[in-house]
């Protein structure tokens, strides 16, 4: 029985996020990953237990086991699926600096910083 696809919930309204996701999508090729832009009006986030604000606040990935990964752990889950990035996911699990760096870069999108008050920028 095949595993379900990984689901990546990303902020398509953030120029930096959009470029990064485009890069990941190119690398992913035909891997079983569903890419969901949470800024699209027809996206239903209720099945993920999220509202739009929460989905935009931090990076979210549902891994192939169905577990929700948030923040740095979401990046590591995605990297584990991407060729050329697997080493980074393994290093991130062992080296706190990589996980902290991935977590620190979230909330840096200038577009989103203008759109959300300070308490919502960092999770």
What structural class should be given to the helix and strand makeup?
alpha+beta
Percent of residues in beta strands:
5-15%
- Helix content estimate: 40-55%
| Largest β sheet strand count, sense and barrel closure | 4 strands, mixed
Order of helix and strand elements from N to C terminus = EHEHEEHHHHH
The structural domain count equals 1
Shape: globular
Separate helix tally: 7
For this entry, what is the oligomeric state of its chains?
A: single chain
Detailed description of the structure:
By secondary structure, this protein is an alpha+beta fold. It has one domain. Helices cover 47% and strands 13% of the residues. The chain is built from seven helices and four strands. The chain has helices at residues 15-28, 52-57, 72-81, 86-94, 96-104, 110-115, 118-121, and strands spanning 6-10, 33-37, 60-62, 68-70. Helix 3 packs antiparallel against helix 4, helix 3 crosses helix 5 (96-104) and helix 4 packs across helix 5.
């Amino acid at each position: 029985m095949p595993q379900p696809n990984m689901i990546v919930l990303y902020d398509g309204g953030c120029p930096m996020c959009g470029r990064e996701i485009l890069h990941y999508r190119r690398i992913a090729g035909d891997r079983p990953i569903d890419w969901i832009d949470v800024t699209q009006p027809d996206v239903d986030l209720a099945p993920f237990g999220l509202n739009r604000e929460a989905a935009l606040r931090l990076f979210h990935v549902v891994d192939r086991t169905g577990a929700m990964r948030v923040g740095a752990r979401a990046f590591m889950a995605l990297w584990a699926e991407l060729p050329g990035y697997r080493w980074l996911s393994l290093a991130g699990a062992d080296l706190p600096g990589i996980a902290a760096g991935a977590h620190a870069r979230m909330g840096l999108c200038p577009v989103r910083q203008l759109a959300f008050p300070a308490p919502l920028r960092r999770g």
